[in-house]
Amino acid sequence: MTLVLLYLVVLVLIAVVLFALGSVLFGRGEPLPPLPRDTTATVLPASGVTGADVDAIKFAQTLRGYKTSEVDWVLDRLGAELDQLRGQLDTLRAAYGIEDPDDTVAEQPAHALQDDDETADSRSEA
């Protein structure tokens, strides 16, 4: 019985030493201070947004999903970047007399999902 008690005391002593060592090495686990109001940890480069930048975006989650202000900010930035790039493209097309291919292509659906009836019709035609 004393041997079991001795093992238990040694085990608790080892656990306390490991906990103290971990606390010294890795900190005491203080929480980070909250971000100032109207700021976000979501980042995008100032210009030249790439697909990898968009893939790397992380939004803060709230009770009912993602933080709306962060999502709105990213969408506004991406929209502005797209508008700027399309403006540059239109300027270059006008300078070199290249016709816009979007004007000659038939109108495509606005989304990738189609109704089941449309999918069945396109399969029967093929």
Could you walk me through the main structural features you see in this protein, from its secondary elements to its overall organization?
With 126 residues, the chain is mostly helical. It has a domain at 37-100. The chain contains 5 helices and 2 strands, in the order ααββααα. The protein has helices at 2-26, 51-55, 68-96, 101-104, 116-125, and strands at 61-62, 65-66. A hairpin with a 2-residue loop joins strand 1 (61-62) and strand 2 (65-66). The chain is rod-shaped. The model is unreliable at 105-116 (pLDDT under 50).
Strands, total number: 2
Helix content: 55-70%
Q: What percentage of amino acids are in beta strands?
A: under 5%
Termini separation: 83 Å
Silhouette:
rod-shaped
Average pLDDT level: 77
Instruction: Please mark out the parts with pLDDT under 50 across 5 or more consecutive residues, or reply none.
Output: 105-116
Q: Largest beta sheet: what is the strand line-up?
A: 1-2
* SSE order, one letter for each helix or strand: HHEEHHH
Provide the gyration radius in Å.
Answer: 29 Å
**What class, by secondary structure content?**
mainly alpha
DSSP summary: helix tally: 5
Which descriptors apply to this entry?
two-stranded antiparallel sheet; mainly alpha; 5 helices; single chain; 3% strand; 126 residues
Concise description?
The protein has 126 residues and is mostly helical.
Write the layout of secondary structure elements.
Blueprint: H1 2-26, H2 51-55, E1 61-62, E2 65-66, H3 68-96, H4 101-104, H5 116-125
Antiparallel strand pairs: 1-2
